[in-house]
Design goal:
The protein has a three-stranded mixed β-sheet, covered by helices on one side. β2 and β3 form a beta hairpin. α4 packs across α11, α6 packs across α8 and α10 crosses α11. It is about 60% helix and about 5% strand. With about 250 residues, it is mainly alpha-helical.
Length: about 250
């Protein structure tokens, strides 16, 4: 009686070897293709660091859509230098979006771990941990797609941006390019649009309300004043007052 063997037969070993080889080739091809893509979109960091505040990919995309969808509100964007952005506005957005902005190196791993734990607890994707740096990267160079590949590109570009631009320049670009309403981009344009005021006249309440527009500014903003918006604005205002009193 022939002995049974646990070893795979020769044809099966041949197929498995070929599958492993094909997977290795596919992985190498993907890495090369992704490297070429990143090289193609790689920014001129020096121009971004020293030049005027650049127009984000989201602003450019909105203006393209305006040519087709004429009922969209006209785009409003008025970038201002960092020194013209009141400290209360800077702190409101940091309180709302990224409390450890000045401490992390682009990705807040501590906040990410807490977000994952909370999402597992609620069995839903309720909390994100995207930093101001990551949001700036997405606004500037990428799309809002929630794919692994986009998140990978966001991570690579964010780490490069942190080392090439520095925190102050990142915050300056973020506050000038963030979408804060339908067609409203940046805190200076938003101040004029919602209150008819220059940016330097905003107080803590207005600053908190601008920050409360995120992450859904088209629906939740100082004009719509939805329940979600008002609740978020109150929380931000409370936390902002604590920060300002230190």
């Amino acid at each position: 009686m022939p002995r049974s063997s646990n070893k795979p037969r020769r044809p099966l070993r041949f197929v498995l070897r070929w599958l492993a080889w094909l997977l290795a080739v596919a992985a190498v091809a993907f890495i090369v293709a992704d490297g070429i893509y990143l090289a193609r979109i790689w920014p001129d960091w020096e121009a971004i660091r020293t030049g005027p505040v650049p127009e984000s990919a989201f602003i450019k995309d909105y203006r393209k859509r305006l040519r087709v969808k004429h009922r969209l509100p006209e785009s409003q964007w008025k970038p201002v230098p960092f020194w013209q952005i009141p400290v209360v506005v800077q702190k409101a957005f940091i309180v709302a979006e990224d409390g450890r902005f000045w401490q992390h190196s682009g990705v807040d791993w501590q906040a990410l771990r807490h977000a994952i734990q909370a999402n597992i607890k609620h069995k839903a994707f309720k909390y994100g941990a995207s930093t101001i740096s990551q949001q700036t990267t997405k606004n500037m160079f990428l799309t809002s797609d929630r794919t692994f590949l986009r998140k990978w590109h966001e991570l690579v570009l964010t780490r490069a941006m942190e080392s090439k631009l520095g925190k102050q320049r990142i915050l300056e670009i973020y506050l000038n390019d963030a979408q804060l309403g339908k067609g409203v981009f940046g805190v200076a344009a938003a101040a004029r649009y919602y209150w008819g005021k220059p940016l330097d006249q905003l107080g803590a309440r207005e600053a908190a309300e601008l920050a409360a527009s995120l992450p859904g500014p088209a629906r939740n903003n100082p004009k719509t004043r939805t329940r979600v918006f008002l609740k978020r604005a109150a929380t931000i205002r409370k936390n902002l007052n604590i920060v300002l009193s230190r």
